[in-house]
UniProtKB/TrEMBL annotation:
Membrane-spanning ranges: none
Lineage top rank: taxon: Bacteria
InterPro entries per record: AAA+_ATPase, ABC_transporter-like_ATP-bd, BCAA_Transport_ATP-bd_LivF, P-loop_NTPase
Example of a GO biological process term: L-amino acid transport
Keyword Isomerase: no
Residue stretches making up the ABC transporter domain: 2-232
Protein name as annotated: High-affinity branched-chain amino acid transport ATP-binding protein LivF
UniProt-recorded Gene Ontology molecular function terms: ATP binding; ATP hydrolysis activity; branched-chain amino acid transmembrane transporter activity
Alphabetical UniProt keywords: Amino-acid transport, ATP-binding, Nucleotide-binding, Transport
Family, similarity comment: Belongs to the ABC transporter superfamily.
Organism: Isoptericola dokdonensis DS-3
Length: 232
């Protein structure tokens, strides 16, 4: 679904992410682990086209999109949920979903229902102003809104950050359900060991913008080596 080859990106003349090779196979999860400032968000922004690539290639569903603007990547099936549980705070939860659903007609309405099935707690909160929701509820809303676009690749930046554990479990339960359903690929960035590595088909550890460790097939067995790489 996604193939990054020799990807370097940064800000102005500064390179933050160096020569990254990484893939997300169809219908699977790829996890990128790394501490604060390792370059995880920068990598995602380059994948989305929000930052120009300094060198290397971004191939999405077989097509080279390295120089394509973000909206064209979105049209090819990428949905991005940035860090920080972003929503339109003044709008209700329902309106947050509706603004996206309206752009997708009947599919948008169907996908809204499916997303609410995935996050049933949101159904009772639809009338509430998004800015008044808890961090966990806003994160669920942000993921639901991304799903309403009908993505083939869901890109998640630290969805568990700052969220209480029971809601994190709900969010990861939903991601597991989506993966089990097939058809959706996930690129997930996390600081901490846990769901990401346990469920990853591929994983990479990023430190100062470089991949310092990688592997295929996550699960409990790989946790010690990933922990060791994170401690580098
Ligand atoms: N807009 C920017 N302009 C210049 N440098 C930036 C910018 N955003 C991030 N950086 C720098 O790029 C490096 C990597 O930051 P990035 O946000 O990609 O890391 P991260 O792994 O996502 O960290 P975190 O877990 O804190 O989000 C840091 O040194 C940071 O200071």
């Amino acid at each position: 679904m996604l193939e990054l080859t020799g990807l370097s990106a940064g800000y102005g003349r500064t390179t933050v992410v160096h020569d990254v090779d990484l893939g997300v196979a169809d219908g699977t999860l790829t996890a990128v682990l790394g501490h604060n400032g390792a370059g995880k968000t920068t990598l995602l922004r380059a994948v989305l086209g929000l930052l120009p690539v300094q060198s290397g290639r971004v191939v999405l569903a077989g097509e080279d999109v390295t120089t394509r603007p973000p909206h064209q990547r979105v049209r090819r099936g990428v949905a991005y949920v940035p860090q920080g549980q972003q929503s339109f705070g003044q709008l209700s939860a329902r309106e947050n979903l509706q603004v996206v659903a309206d752009a997708h007609g009947r599919d948008g309405r169907r996908r809204t229902d499916e997303a609410l099935d995935l996050f049933p707690a949101l159904r009772d909160l639809l009338g509430r102003q998004a800015g008044l929701l808890s961090g966990g509820q806003r994160q669920q809303l942000a993921i639901a809104r991304a799903l309403v676009t009908g993505p083939r690749l869901l890109v998640l930046d630290e969805p568990a950050e700052g969220i209480q554990p029971n809601v994190v479990a709900e969010i990861y339960g939903a991601i597991s359900t989506l993966l089990a359903g097939g058809g959706l690929s996930v690129l997930l960035v996390e600081q901490h060991l846990g769901f990401a590595v346990e469920h990853a088909a591929q994983y990479a550890v990023l430190a100062t913008g470089r991949v310092v460790h990688r592997g295929a097939g996550g699960g409990p067995d790989v946790v010690p080596e990933v922990r060791a790489a994170l401690a580098l």
